[in-house]
Structure formats: structure tokens, C-alpha cells
Amino acid sequence: MAPNLTEVRWNYPAPYRAIDVIRTSLSDGMPRGLEAEAQAFGELAMTEVSRRLVEVFYATTALKKDDGTLETAAISVGRDGVNPPM
């Protein structure tokens, strides 16, 4: 079952705020639109949703760098046992 728009808007408010900012810019002019954009960005950047999305970004970036091997120190092997000394 798909979530309703009220749930989506509560969890991810940025796209809806962007639409509001665009409307402000179109109706009140570019200077007022830029003020609205700065205000909306400042408010959205400080939300818990924003913090969690940044955490998700860093976690997925770290996983992309992980090659799946454990970091262990290499040990020195004096002889490989295949070719006996002559």
C-alpha cells in the first residue's frame, strides 16, 4: 500500500518547500524568491530528517569504498615450499 501524501510530506518536506519557493519567486519576483529559498534551506538543513539523510549518504559512500576484505597485515614467507633449495 502506497503512503498517503500527508505522510510523505511529513517525512520528506524538501520537495514541497521547493515548490513553495518556486511559487513565491514566480508571484513575488526573484529577490523575494531568493529570500524564501535561503529561509527554507536554513530551516530544512537543521531538521532531524536532514541529519538522517546525511548519515545515509555517508554510510552508503563508505560501503562503496569497502571491498569486502578484512584489513590484515601481510606476513613474510621465507620459502613457498614448492621449489626446495638446491
Q: Number of DSSP strands?
A: 0
Please describe the biggest sheet, giving its number of strands, its sense, and whether it closes into a barrel: none
List low-pLDDT spans: none
Order of helices and strands: HHHH
Overall geometry: rod-shaped
Question: Considering DSSP H and I runs of 4 or more, what fraction of the residues is helical?
Answer: 55-70%
Mean pLDDT: 84
**SS class:** mainly alpha
Rounded to the nearest angstrom, the radius of gyration is: 27 Å
Percent of residues in beta strands:
under 5%
Number of helical runs? 4
Distance N to C terminus: 74 Å
Written description of the protein model:
This protein is mainly α. It has a domain at 13-65. 65% of the residues lie in helices and 0% in strands. It has four helices and no strands. Helix 2 packs antiparallel against helix 3. The longest helix has 18 residues, at 48-65. The mean pLDDT is 84.
Overview features:
86 residues; mainly alpha; 0% strand
